[in-house]
Write a structure and sequence with these properties.
alpha/beta
Length: about 300
């Protein structure tokens, strides 16, 4: 099956989504000068259901590449988009908004459903209500990410040909789903969550993820490698911890072997790389350095 058809099939599993052509709108609430970048607070209308607060970290350049930064879960429901601009235990410093601005890259980070300024109702209650309505929480999150990309490329200060998706943990999973479904994403960097679904089942690790993670009927049609194959031939770096219970090592082996073949067959074996570190579910200084270098080299 061609990649375009597989992409449509993956999209179809994400439930009843808002109209793809919903007119995206943005309101700038304020902006402030920070060291090396300008921070914009935005309220985005991406879905016609509820407003989506966001941070845009504007590098000091007239037109620059953009990184969609996808925040983690970790039970930090009140953190959300603030992860892009404030310290978080699982990540190195400085926050990615500042680190990327130093490289001349803009960063956009939204609050996902039930996180940040969209927190209040529990993840479980939102998942259950959406399920009754034919919606899928993960699908609605992915939808917002793609519509945020629509907004980003409409800005005159963003180079629409140079878009990356990056994240840690839940944000890692979002990065590879985003890149798989949206061909405008030219570079993907996922940190500590390239999880092979079958290996997670075998390891008894399903409760390590929140309920947001589970898409009905997904395993009838896709495994993790199958989703990630849709990113090829675009550049994809994965950073994993060998002691991370969310990424069983035998699962990493399966995905790596499959994607090495996919990228070799595409004639660009150098565009796929999986780096493993003797660490748990956290970003190390070496991971941070590798992520920034990949973005510099590929974006």
């Amino acid at each position: 099956m061609e990649s375009a058809e597989r992409r449509r099939q993956l999209w179809s599993l994400l439930g009843d989504l808002p109209p793809r052509d919903w007119p995206v709108r943005a309101e700038k609430v304020f902006e402030e000068q920070r060291e090396g970048y300008v921070l914009e607070k935005l309220i985005l209308d991406l879905n016609g259901i509820e407003p989506v607060p966001a941070w845009f970290c504007r590098a000091l350049a007239e037109k620059a590449p953009l990184v969609i930064y996808n925040h983690a879960h970790g039970g930090g429901y009140r953190i959300g988009k603030d992860e892009a601009i404030r310290p978080r235990d699982c990540l190195q410093q400085p926050p990615y908004g500042e680190a990327l601005a130093r490289l001349g890259l803009h960063t956009l980070c939204i609050d996902h459903w039930v996180f940040g300024e969209r927190a209040g109702r529990t993840e479980s209650s939102v998942f259950k209500e959406m399920l009754w309505k034919g919606q899928v929480l993960w699908g609605m999150m992915v939808f917002d990410t793609i519509r945020a990309t629509d907004y980003a490329i409409s800005r005159p200060d963003v180079d629409p040909a140079r878009i990356a998706s990056l994240g840690m943990s839940m944000g890692s999973t979002m990065a590879w789903w985003h890149a798989a479904l949206d061909e405008r994403v030219k570079v993907c960097v996922d940190i500590c969550c390239l999880t092979d679904f079958q290996a997670l089942i075998e390891a008894g690790g399903l409760d390590g993820h929140g309920i947001y993670y589970y898409v009905p009927s997904l395993l009838k049609h896709f495994d993790t490698a199958g989703i990630n194959a849709l990113i090829a031939p675009r550049a994809h770096l994965s950073l994993a911890g060998l002691r991370d219970p969310l990424t069983p090592v035998n699962g990493l082996d399966r995905v790596d072997a499959a994607l090495q073949k996919v990228y070799a067959d595409a004639g660009v074996p150098e565009n796929w790389k999986l780096l493993r570190f003797d660490v748990g579910h956290q970003e190390t200084p070496e991971m941070r350095a590798a992520a920034l270098k990949w973005l510099q080299d590929k974006l």
